[in-house]
Amino acid sequence: WEMPWSTLASFLENAGLPTAFPIPEASVLRFLTELQDRGMSVRSMRIQMAALSFFSKSLGFGDPGASFLVRRLLAGWERLFPHQPDGRRPITLTLLSSLCSQLRSTCSSEYEAIMFKTAFVLAFFGAFCSSEFLAASQSDTSCKETPMPRGQKPLFS
Fold this sequence. Notes:
mainly alpha
């Protein structure tokens, strides 16, 4: 709930609106309109509202997302901007094989082809996301270690 609240508080401050609870319905509607203008999906807005509703109720105030106008606004946007299914496909062994066979004709050197093949095979068999073994940018030299799960011993010491 912390991030949705800080997002809302920042919006209210920038708009010159009061940040105290209970949050007026008009402020919630303006906040949702701002999120929509930023391109946030209706699903994400609903998650934001659920967090804000939980936070508001835990403080003993009403649910800012339960008003008729808020519910109708989100329902209308859901009809206008339906959820787009994820267009990504999983990498299959056949696709991996096809990718690796094309490397010699696409890469500028044998060394580069071997590096890409190693990365592809490592990602496939290790079930890694690209962010788990690639740098965020060319200038990123940080090495982020993933903590060992509790009770698990390292393979190599």
